[in-house]
Structure formats: C-alpha cells, structure tokens
Amino acid sequence: MNEKAIELNHVRYETKHFSLEDIHFEVPKGYVTGFIGANGSGKTTTIRMIMDLLQPTSGDIKLFGQPMQTDPVGIKDKIGFVYSELYLNDKWKVKKAEKLIAPFYSQWDHELFMDYLKRFELPYDKKIRELSTGMKMKLSLAIALSHHAELYIFDEPTAGLDPVVRNEILDIIQEELLDEQKSVFFSTHIISDLERIADYIVHLQDGHIIVNASKEELLETHHLVRGDSTDLDDELRQLLIHCVEKDGIYSGMTKDAQTFHELFGQRVTISPMTVEEIMVHYEQHKKGVMNHDNAH
User: Fold this and answer.
1) Total Cβ atoms within 10 A of residue 235
2) Which of 35, 129, 159, 168 is deepest in the core (most CB within 10 A)?
3) What's the number of CA atoms in the CB half-sphere (13 Å) around residue 77?
4) What average pLDDT does the chain have?
5) Domain check: are 237 and 101 in the same one?
6) Are residues 185 and 246 in the same domain?
C-alpha cells in the first residue's frame, strides 16, 4: 500500500480501568477502512488519540505523514469528522450552525452545503433540537462533506438509526467518497455495515487488534470446515480458529481449507464465510484463548 492517510505505530494507552495494547495499523489513501469492535473495546479512545484529543502513553500517530501537533489547523482542515452524536448547540438553527462552522475550514462550500441540505431534506431555518436523530446524523454528514476534505473519520455514524436511514447514510458515504483520493476511517459495531462499504478491516477486541486485513483477503482465505470429530488430531486442531464440537461433528474456521480437502475429500464440507461470520469466529477464539490463559 502506498500513501497512508493515518498511521498508528505501536500505540499504547492506559488508564486505571482500561488499556489499549500495541495498536498498529494504517488507513491507506483512497480506500474505506472499517474499524470494528464491540462497544467498550476502545474504538472511540483510538479515534480521540488520532484527533489529538487524548495523548497515547507511548507510540506515535501520523496523519498525512505527519504528527497532528506539527500543523493542527492545516491537518484538521483536511478532515471531515462525524461523531456518533452531534456536538452542536441544539438551540441554534442550521443556518447559524453553518455560519459558526464555516470559518474553520479554508474550503467551506456554501453551495455544496445547501445541495446536501436539499438532498437530505433538511431545513435551513429550523432549530437543531427540532430534528430527529436521523436528521441530526445527516446534518453531521452534510457538514463533514461540505469542505472538500481528503480524509473522513466516522465514529459510529449509523448507531441508533433505523435500517432505512442507515442504508441511506451508507449509500451517501459510498457515493460521495468513491473519488479515488478520498480516504475513509469508519468505526462501527455493526459488522454488516462494513461488509457493504469497507476495503480494509481492523478489528479491535478488549484493547487488542485481532484482525487487520483487506476484506478481499479475509473472504478468500477463511472457510468454514465441518466433519467427523474422530478425524481431528492435535495437529489439525491447531489449524482451526474457534472450533465447536457437538454430537460427534466438529465445525471450525480455518485458513487451511486445502489441507482438510486433501486429507478427507468428501468427508468434510468446506463453505465460504461472510465477513460477519469471520469476525465472530475471531472474537470467540480470542475469548477462548483468554479464558484458557486466565484458568492457568
């Protein structure tokens, strides 16, 4: 991967109750990188460090190849940011919000903003508190998309939205950002959202990264294998990521489907997996490993 919009190098963050361990990934330019993890896994903390709102205990973070501190105004000018909640005074009208936000961005585009309001059916003259949750999210998006940013950071933009609005928001993100030069970092706990729009996936669990790969690679290399438990020996068990055995039948995820196929032929069934299934297997596997470690 060539140019990177965001890089995290061996970042650690610790508080009394929570720690992020050796967080290491990058967001390549021109692609959508999905950042997945259950609520409380550390996604928002990571995003706050990227935005320089929290300082890592160690490691370094770069945006467009440089630390935020070197040029905070210039770097933030190039970022379109959407929080899961709208951080605007709800007594303001949309009109006033634009008036106060516009000066922060060198390329604020009033025409474009009005276009988005029209498209999203958002009133320019209404108070923010009169808008529904879905409308507030669309307003956040309209703001983020109206200053010709190069990088978009979305923190759970579809949380709490009904499926119709969620689909609409995903469509917008996909359509608007297909321009090759735009980069997107999209955090969510809803895996099916990523299945649709992500090129790369970073999966955070309990402060550790458990998956960091392209979606294509994940779908190509992971398969579900099922067969007779008596066929399994220790060596084959090692090739299974989270294996469940019931009534003499085992079922597990593997990156070595070919091996099982060569050994057992028709005796095993090998099937493709969705991103969601792959992620769930990794989560279960990690839990199993941690429970095993804690038991010792």
Assistant:
1) 8
2) 35
3) 12
4) 91
5) no
6) no
Which of these three, 214, 248, 272, is where a domain ends?
Answer: 214
Count of domains in the chain?
A: 2
Residue 199 reports pLDDT greater than 80: yes
Nearest by Cα to 45 from 28, 57, 30: 57
Judgement on whether residues 240 and 103 belong to the same structural domain of the protein: no
The 3-state DSSP class for residue 186 equals strand
Containing H/E element for 212? strand 208-214
- The count of other CB atoms within 10 Å of the CB of residue 54 is 15
* Tokens describing residue 116: 């988005």
User: For residue 208, with 0-12 CB atoms within 10 Å meaning exposed, 13-18 middle and 19 or more buried, which class applies?
Assistant: middle
Q: Supply 195's token pair.
A: 């299945």
What pLDDT, in 10s, does the model give residues 240-271? 999 999 999 999 999 999 999 999 999 999 99
- How much is the average pLDDT of 82-110? 92
Q: What domain range is 230 assigned to?
A: 219-295
Cβ neighbors of 150 (< 8 A, separation 6 or more) are 5, 29, 64, 78, 79, 181, 182, 183
